[in-house]
Amino acid sequence: MKPNDIALLLTGDELMSGDTVDSNSAMIAQSLAAFGHAVTEKITLGDDRARLVGALQRTTGHARILVMNGGLGPTQDDLTAELVAAAAEVQLGLHPDAERHVRDWCAERGIEPNDANLKQAWLPEGATIIHNPRGSAVGFAIEVNGTLILTTPGVPGELRAMLPEICERIVAAIGGGQTHRVRLQTFGIGESTIQALIDEDDAPWPESVVLGYRAGMPQLEMKLTAATASPEVEQCQQTLERLFGDHIIGEDDATLAGALQQVLRDQGKKMVTAESCTGGLIASMVTAEPGSSSVFEAGFVTYANSIKHSVLGVSEASLETDGAVSEAVVKQMLAGALTESGADIGIAVSGIAGPDGGSDDKPVGTVWLAWGTADNMHTLRTVLPTDRAMFQKLVAAAGLDLIRRQLLGLPKLPHYFSRRAI
Questions:
Q1: What is the DSSP secondary structure assignment for residue 72, as one 8-state letter?
Q2: 81 within 8 A of 165, measured Cβ to Cβ
Q3: Residue 123 buriedness (CB in 10 A; 0-12 / 13-18 / 19+)
Q4: pLDDT attached to residue 422
Q5: Cβ(50)–Cβ(56) below 8 Å
């Protein structure tokens, strides 16, 4: 047995069928990383008794820690307590603390606990409970063949609430590594480009600092990891900021919309959006962040040409001659939105999200963007040959970033769009 091996066993037919996407293993791994630990093995199985027994037999005595996620509910296919009891060669018993938890949970909701509810209080003899602040099923911990088994419900919100105690128990069992992390959120540049520019840079990269990436949409996270905070970590962060500073939107969990909001607040300005192909997604991203009322003036979703004309004042001649997806139209959309709202700065977009509607000169994925102020307006045409949902996300994210860049006086285009601009 390796002293720090941590295995995950995720259970549920819904995971195997694809009805539920596994986000729990990522949540567990990220929580463990804060204590310097990593998951060494992950097993995902349906509610199959024989396969689950086999997985328990293989893992106990092999991994020091086994986090078993799922199978603690009130139904017949919730097998975790029964199977762990069999692996530990003990009986199930009505655990008084677990029973109290179930009864209190039911009482708070004005219901009488039935046999299905109370099934969740039958745990392997000798197990200790792991408190569940949100759900009716507690988790439990028990040692089997030198492996500490920690069980949790499969509901992500319940797991999230239980992870602090899970991590405390793991640290108590195997200790906690000291890890220092710096997380930088970026937009508009990819992993391969980042790594190539770092490799070409003259500044040495110390072996004690590991650079990692976590791809997302629309952002990419760069992550520096080291044993402790040190001058080397600061040096590496300075290198990243020097090379990619205009693409870095903030640290930790910073978002494009949140970063833009902060700039607008700092400068005492308000923004407006005029959207066609994104259907209001840019406005939605801004207003999803708290505090948006202080910086967001209005959002216009002018999908039909008649509404572009009647609401934003886009000329019928431009719509007829140039088409809705054109530089002339997005400039007029933005000008109209700025006039109608009185906002200081804004973004207008019009494009062909697909899958239909393209032509030889305007293929699916074509988009025109206009951003800026009434007297300092910029435009860009690009083609994003991707599916409809991804197209809308990329265009919306670009819209936020382009305004941020203009307000901060950064280079006009992020790397990704400067390569694709037409």
A1: -
A2: no
A3: buried
A4: 54
A5: no
SS3 325: coil
Tokens (6 digits) for 352: 């062909």
Residue found under tokens 């600061």: 234
Residue 2 has pLDDT above 70, yes or no: no
Least confident interval from 21-30, 221-230, 365-374: 221-230
Residues 180-191 pLDDT 10s: 889 999 999 888
179 has pLDDT over 80: no
Q: What is the pLDDT of the chain when averaged over all its residues? A: 92
Give one word for 13, left, alpha or beta, with left for phi > 0 and alpha for psi -120 to 50.
Answer: alpha
Partners of 144 in beta bridges: 147
Q: Give all strands (DSSP E) within 125-179, no chain letters.
A: 128-130, 139-144, 147-152
3 state DSSP class of 305: helix
ω into residue 414 within 30 of 0, thus cis? Answer: no
Domains assigned to the chain: 6-174 (3.40.980.10), 180-251 (3.30.70), 256-420 (3.90.950.20)
Confidence label for 237 from pLDDT (cuts 50, 70 and 90):
very high
Q: What are phi and psi of 209, to 5 degrees?
A: -120, 125
Phi, psi (deg, nearest 5) at residue 342: 75, 15
Give the model's pLDDT for residue 210: 84
Nearest 5°: the CA angle 9, 12, 14 is 135
Which runs of E-coded beta strand occur in 264-344? 271-275, 296-301
Report how far residue 158's alpha carbon sits from residue 287's, in angstroms, rounded to the nearest whole number.
27
Task: Kindly report the number of other CB atoms within 10 A of residue 210's CB atom.
Answer: 13
Residues 35 and 177 sit within 8 Å (Cβ to Cβ):
yes
Q: Are 402 and 347 in contact, with CB atoms under 8 Å apart? A: yes
